[in-house]
Design brief:
elongated; about 170 residues; 2 domains; mainly alpha
Length: about 170
């Protein structure tokens, strides 16, 4: 009884059984805070990676999702949980920076979509590989191949050679 507030002790002492006590506490304290729920929903759906690492972005998103779930428990249906996991995977992918465009386009095309934790692991592996090799593919998909070719050093402009000859007579 040392862990119960003084205001609640009489309710605990005089309750007939644990079920009625649990029901009474649930009615009294289990209220959804609408403003907090709205705030979490907005934070989840507007969060992007920005300049932070994928790990930091994923951790912040995951923390918000856990708090959201603790406030508003979904109904116990398997299909609902699959749909919820899919929405969270899409939210994670949409929030990634543009340098992960390939992951954003490839992961949804998989025959069976991975859970959000597996998608996170794939993106972190890609991020680690980029750090090791020093590669950044941010906007590489938008560059014309001819621009890359002509931008290489040591390539001289080609002169206009034609098949017409001038003969001196």
């Amino acid at each position: 009884m040392r862990n119960v507030l003084k205001d609640l002790v009489t309710g605990v002492l005089f309750s007939s059984n644990a079920c009625t006590l649990s029901t009474a506490f649930k009615e009294r304290f289990d209220k959804v805070n609408g403003s907090r729920l709205y705030f979490l929903h907005k934070e989840i759906f507007t969060m992007t990676q920005g300049i932070c690492s994928v790990s930091t972005y994923f951790t912040k998103l995951r923390d918000l999702l856990v708090e959201y779930d603790s406030i508003l428990l979904p109904p116990p249906a398997v299909e609902y949980f699959e749909q919820l996991e899919y929405q969270r995977l899409l939210q994670f992918l949409m929030g990634l920076s543009d340098s992960f465009e390939q992951a954003r386009s490839q992961i949804p095309l998989m025959s069976t979509l991975p859970p959000i934790n597996n998608a996170y692991a794939m993106v972190v592996q890609d991020e680690s590989r980029r750090m090791i090799t020093g590669a950044n593919y941010g906007n590489a998909g938008n560059i014309e191949p001819t621009a890359l070719f002509s931008a290489q050093s040591g390539i001289k402009q080609r002169r206009n050679y034609s098949l017409e000859f001038d003969f001196v007579t």
